[in-house]
Design goal:
The complex is a heterodimer of chains A (137) and B (141). With 137 residues, chain A is α+β, with helices and mostly antiparallel strands. Chain A is 30% helix and 28% strand. Chain A is built from 4 helices and 5 strands, in the order E-H-E-H-E-H-H-E-E. In chain A, strand 4 and strand 5 (131-134) form a beta hairpin. Chain A is elongated, with a radius of gyration of 17 Å. Chain B is of the alpha+beta class. Chain B has 3 helices and 5 strands; from the N terminus they run E-H-E-H-E-H-E-E. A 5-stranded mixed β-sheet of chain B has the order 3-1-2-4-5. In chain B, helix 2 (63-78) crosses helix 3 (97-111). The longest helix of chain B is centred in the middle third of the chain and has 16 residues, at 63-78. The chains are: A alpha+beta (137), B alpha+beta (141).
């Protein structure tokens, strides 16, 4: 059998702020620039979830994409969409909500819910031009 | 008549919330957009001007100058900001995409050189939601 990758794309709109509470304002401004605006800013995030594995011989599916969509909605979109990532989610109380960290958080949430025999990869677009991928390789 | 469009973008937080209403009424009308801790978008702004090309330059207006005016008068005020809290020309206004497009038009109109006529401000809040504003005349001038 051959491995196949399947993808589901979802999106959420959220506010966030990048800052390190252990640093003073000057250092936060120097490192994070306008992303440190104390009143937050926001993005339309585009999320791509990739699952790779062998198609099931009975269904032909690697993973039912409707079920994958439902899972992403229940586990990720409902928690992040139209939220403030710093204030409204439990994941970024101490973790800076950079695209990198958001992708890792989403990976960890979904990894627990998906059969370990399937490879999982997250690609997260913060803007059309800025995006991250996790895990690497 | 020629139409010339420059596209710019900004990322901002906002919420849709009418302070004179109860929280319940805000949630009934605005749903998750009323989240008190804000949410945000990548906005795409299309500014269209109209007129006749200059005989000597062939330009309706130097688009690099148009970009500089949009950036200095609009983008610097909106990018990585909270639209409800940080923006002078949205103070006291409901922060809908409709009102933001009207606010952007009014700001731009004051800052474009005489002879440069604004035709349309098109503002995308998401790839699937946008508004267009053609000024009080509705674009009929």
């Amino acid at each position: 059998m051959s491995k196949v990758a399947v993808f589901r794309r979802e999106h959420f709109n959220a506010a966030h702020r990048l800052f390190n509470a252990a640093w003073d304002n000057a250092k936060n401004d120097a490192v994070f620039g306008k992303c440190n605006n104390p009143n937050y800013h926001g993005h339309n995030y585009e999320l791509e979830v990739r699952l790779a594995g062998e198609p099931d011989p009975e269904t032909g599916y690697v993973y039912d994409l409707k079920k994958l969509s439902d899972l992403i909605h229940e586990q990720v979109i409902e928690k992040f969409d139209h939220k403030n990532l710093n204030l409204d989610t439990k994941y970024f109380v101490k973790l800076n909500p950079t695209a990198e960290n958001i992708a890792i958080v989403i990976y960890n949430i979904l990894r627990e819910k998906i059969n370990p025999s399937l490879d999982l990869k997250i690609r997260l677009y913060e803007t059309e031009r800025n995006f991250v991928e996790y895990p690497v390789g | 008549m020629v139409y010339l469009t420059r596209i710019e973008h900004f990322n901002a937080a906002h919420k849709l919330y009418n302070d004179s209403w109860s929280r319940e009424q805000n949630e009934a009308v605005f749903g998750k957009c009323a989240n008190e801790n804000w949410h945000g978008h990548n906005y795409e702004l299309y500014v269209t001007i109209k007129g006749e090309p200059n005989v000597e330059t062939g330009f309706l207006f130097d688009v690099k100058k148009l970009s500089a005016i949009i950036n200095s008068t609009i983008i610097e005020k909106l990018d990585h900001k909270n639209l409800n809290m940080d923006v002078d020309f949205m103070k006291g206004e409901m922060c809908s995409t409709e009102n933001l497009a009207i606010g952007i038009w009014n700001e731009l109109e004051q800052n474009l050189p005489s002879g440069v006529h604004l035709h349309c401000v098109k503002l995308h809040e998401t790839p699937r939601i946008y508004v267009e504003y053609f000024g009080e005349s509705g674009g009929k001038l």
